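Fresh eyes needed here. I'd like your take on this protein's tokenised backbone:
***
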Amino acid sequence: MSLVLDPAAQDLLFREARTANAFTDEPVTDEQVRAIYDLVKYGPTAFNQTPLRITLVRSPEARERLLKHMAEGNRDKTAAAPLVAILSADNEFHEELPTLFPAFPQAKDVFFAERPVRESAAAFNAALQAGYLIVGIRAAGLAAGPMTGFDAEGVRKEFLDDDHTPLMIVNIGRPAPDASHPRGPRLAYEDVVTTV
């Protein structure tokens, strides 16, 4: 059975898509970011949770504040990227559940009354949403450079609050020539899928 999605779209989203380490200087507009979000917000999560929060780092001052928290190997590319996004998990996401999951509005209190449970659910579902966001960036014809090499506590204190947990930093833009490393190998279907 073949996939329904057009092969060119498959290539754009997956086969030819790469993590970018260098970008052109073409700006990424608010309209592009809104269009990406308006597409990927429909990606499924448990209980329709929407814990992902996106902080766009646009001003030179904010970029300087961020760079001091980046791992040394990530500083230059973050400094040069057209747009940088801090992706975090909102640990108080459950407050929106009565609206987002009207089929069972009591889920807010039944399942997520305790903070450790919320933190675990927020991290997992925000990570799902981050994956959707990266695919959405690719769907916009842009490239993403997601990174976890940063001081999470420093980023939280600098840009967020105690209710938000930083997950990753993503550089966004049009990839420059030779922006990516050679593609690494992937595991075969047989190495990943087990039927029981």
Observations:
- The CA atoms of residues 27 and 127 lie 26 Å apart.
- The radius of gyration is 18 Å.
- The chain has nine helices and four strands.
